[in-house]
Structure prediction request, 387 residues.
Amino acid sequence: MTVIGGGFAGLTAAISAAESGAAVTLYEAHRTLGGRGRTAEGPYAANDGPHALYSRGPHWAWLRRRGLLGPMATPPLRESHRFRFHRAGALRRTPPLGVFTLARRKAETAPVDTDFMTWATERAGPDTARAAAHYAAVALFHHDPGALSAAFVQERLRRATALPPEARYPVGGWGRLTGRMAAHARNLGVRIETAVRIDSLPEHAPVIVATSLEAARRLLKDDSLRWTGGRTALLDLALRTRKGDPFIVSDLDAPGWLERFTAQDPSLAPAGEQLLQGHFPVGPDESRADGIARAENLLDLGFPGWRARTAWRRESLATGRTGAVDPPGTTWRDRPRIDRGQGVFLAGDQVAAPGVLSEVSFNSGITAAALAVQQLSALKEQSPGVA
Prediction:
């Protein structure tokens, strides 16, 4: 069996298939594994944008059973009073009360065919609905979350506001988690080849394509492999430590999130410095600079003297690299299907699998592996010499 792509979905699929007895070869085009789960090398262990692992997702128990979770950091209680909300142009200690009232509604009560702003406005008024939509953007990476399916946004709003918080953070960055998964895969007999770009499908099925949809579209020559995604400016910043800096700033005036990740994991930056990572979604007519300008506005409001304190900075624009979003009238079932026929299976964060954030990659990887193993078993029955 062949797996193309060594990110979270590809590693999940490779491990699952190998556990079922399949001989698996995984190819990764880059020198290092991890996909968007890579962590920068050097003194600042920044992930590719803000990352968190939600502890109530199916991947949590799966990773834990295999001893792959490793040390996990949790949001520190001592920092909870340093959570700030940007609304009406100022930083405040609390959001509109109605945001959490709205968040308590089960996702199943929100309609698929109606946009979130319309549905939430009918229940909480336009101001609360807008604030809730922008808060949910932490798990959406989209410039207009209120325009998306109400059911889709509500699921993410509810998960993002859960108490106690679901968010957990691999100590040392997501690259550590990737490393543990890769080592486990190798121990199971998976052959991993990096810096190998696959430009055409292998002759022998089954094949799991665990790449971005764009890369899968080119590889499979299938223009139907498209889905709506986000576009967001990413800002990573190392500042010399100042007592009293916020832990998190959630922008409720526009979608945006800025988090001081060294609050829960000091190992991410040298002593005396703190690592901030943020994402600021931008519309189709906006540039990276527009998102960064909003980030700098939050820094001006919450981090006095941040420019003089800056020790390291990195910014980028992520387009179609932050997972699927579902417009009104669609659910995850409408995304590109996993089984493409002819022994080809898709996995990744924009395909037809349920879940929030990395859970989509995980669920699709598990499903793709199960389908591929089934086909491999059928081929072996037809041709006993197939290994």
Remarks:
- The chain has two domains: 2-73+169-228+327-382, 80-164+230-323.
